[in-house]
Amino acid sequence: MPKLHDSSPNSLVCTVLPTFNERDNITPLIERLLASVPSPYLVLVIDDNSPDETWQVVADLAAKYPYAAKTDKTTSGVALVRRIKEKGLTSAIARGIREAIDTYGASIITWMDCDLSMPPEDVAQLVKAIREQEADVAVGSRWVDGGTDIAHGLMARVLSWIINHFAMLLLGSKVHDYTSGFIAARSHVLERIPLRGDYGEYCIDLLCRASRLGYHLVEVPYVCVPRTAGESKTGINLWDYLSKGRKYVSTIVMLWLNQKSN
Ligand SMILES: Nc1nc2c(ncn2[C@@H]2O[C@H](COP(=O)(O)OP(=O)(O)OP(=O)(O)O)[C@@H](O)[C@H]2O)c(=O)[nH]1
Ligand SMILES: [Mg+2]
Predict the structure, then answer these.
(1) CA Rg, the chain, in Å?
(2) How many angstroms is it from 253 CA to the middle of ligand 1?
(3) What is the pLDDT of residues 186-233, one digit of tens each?
(4) Domains plus CATH for the chain?
(5) How far is the CA of 191 from the centre of ligand 2 (A)?
(6) Of 153, 154, 184, 198, which has the highest C-beta tally within 10 A?
């Protein structure tokens, strides 16, 4: 499929939505995305056969808003990948990136949590940062002016502060929210830097490697708000946070030790 220049307003933007048991969040999330991100635009859900049948809700939305790029280049729509045998956040996003590029020819790819903690309307701001500030990667950031986190308690915010300051100390302070998970990037950047890891540590790894390769990273502030439906996959107690935090710390240390890693 021919690729239009990344910055062209006619080039395809694709938002990859990794879902596991997000039945009550997915419809408002997708409808708010479709209402706020300019066409041509594709919402691509990668669901890991959720027991709550999120995939069925998405299949209905894909029938209601079909993505018809082959016949109409100005269209917006929804598509679904239902994975039966695979599971995991990073591999789900990676699958979405691959489909977005290979199947649909997207030139800008974004992704986010599907718990409505990241305001869907802010995706348009990330895309704008890529198109208008000529960024290669736009990072939704809680920890720059205008951003904050009102979703998490003190313990989670303190741990996030410690991990992000540790990352800035060892990996550089071009980014203040290494664990954001709310990203837009040009496709060629993602083709060059495949995601690595199991969970949120892929984000630290991606942002560090993109920065080391000289890509232009910009941060766009966003306010992280509480999930109102469904359950957190990270959990809420100290043990859950420490077990995820341990992977984040080891990722930072490995990247620091392998300064030339990319
Ligand atoms: N496809 C897929 N998606 C997943 C998997 N695990 C988590 N997700 C999705 O990844 C996103 C992040 O999960 P959340 O439950 O928000 O967890 P979190 O952001 O780490 O934790 P909170 O800070 O409590 O929100 C959500 O959209 C989940 O549905 C998985 O194994 N497969
Ligand atoms: Mg979340």
Answers:
(1) 17
(2) 24
(3) 999 999 999 999 989 999 999 999 999 999 999 999 999 998 898 887
(4) 13-257 (3.90.550.10)
(5) 25
(6) 184
